[in-house]
Amino acid sequence: MRIVILCGGESPERDVSLSSGGSVAQALVGLGHEVVLADPAAEVPVLAGPLHRGDRVEVSAVGKEPPSGADRRRLQRRMEAALTSGPVLELCRSADLVFLALHGGWGEDGRVQELLGRAGVRFTGAGSTACAAAWHKDRAQATLGAAGLPVAERAVWRPAAGEVPQDVRRLVAAGPVVAKPVADGSSVSVHRIDSLPQLELLGDELSQDRADLLVEPFLPGREFTVAVVGDHVLPVVEIELTTPLFDYTAKYQPGGVSEVCPAPVPAAFASRLQELALRAHEALGFDEHAYSRTDFRCDAAGEPMCMEVNALPGLTATSLVPLAATGAGWTYPELVQRIVDLAVR
To answer: Apex CA 243: angle with CA 149 and CA 308, to 5°?
Structure first.
């Protein structure tokens, strides 16, 4: 097939996305597909290609810190222009398939999917509605809770609005809590908060962003993640942390975390997590053509809480979905081909 991979983009997860794109390109080229690797937010969007079997594909490393958001508006303008007119859109239209390796931001909030759908372009992963439903953490948790899935108590605060609201104060008083952007990914800007002054200091730092923070109790138990690929629920992965939180550095730098698949848990508990992941996948509107990854953390009693569902989870060499695929007996190229097959069947 002629496949265009879209990666990079305008979000704080840009580095992760570029690394995912290179890894996917390497796999698709090895499988015999013709591949073009493109970053719709870049000044020169075509990064490589057309690539064919035997061609070398460079895979970029993920930086120690997420990129600065200072240039995000410029990247957004380029990205919108690239996907509504011009050579990138025509490149996508001329392909048999667009493989979306865009994490966070417009790639994961449904905006890119809507633009491609409007242009009649076939792409991998979930559609715009399911992506939008999963992207906003507060609304997603409300949907999951209404569907009977276990979710933690939570409250939302916009630092730019000023005083910390009472429901947030109550959670902090019962603390500790975790504060994170209500719409973001790759554990970017996740903070453990132990006191109200600490939260207010964080609010002062973020007040210019005019973004909402989701505040929820810090859960001290074990952490797990479960991927669903089409109608396959993959083995449970346990994330064994060396830090209190699974933040950006722990996720993408060697030694920050140990990830074990299959997770060393009783079979009944693993089956329960897999059932919850499938229910979360379906509750947010993901269908048999999509894939997702649901994250869980346990409370002090060992009960798992559904934290979030990722619509376009990372596909780097160190990402969790490839690890889960290995636990299921799939190679990385087999995982990538299955994602392609979901989109074209």
So the answer is: 20
Strand 213-217 to strand 177-181: parallel, antiparallel, or no bridges (unpaired)? antiparallel
DSSP 92-146: HHHSSEEEE---SHHHHSSHHHHHHHHTT--BSS--HHHHHHHHSHHHHHHHHHH
Architecture of domain 134-150+219-344 in this structure: 2-Layer Sandwich (3.30)
Per-residue pLDDT of 256-293, as tens digits, reads 678 999 999 999 999 999 999 999 999 999 999 999 99
Q: Which CATH superfamily is domain 155-217 in?
A: ATP-grasp fold, A domain (3.30.1490.20)
Which DSSP category does 85 fall into?
S
The structural architecture, per CATH, of the domain 2-123 is 3-Layer(aba) Sandwich (3.40)
Please give the distance of CA 1 from its chain centroid, rounded to a whole number. 26
Residue 32 is given by DSSP the state T
Radius of gyration of the chain (CA): 20
Q: Are 114 and 130 in contact (CB under 8 A)?
A: no
- In this prediction, residues 4-27 reach a mean pLDDT of 94
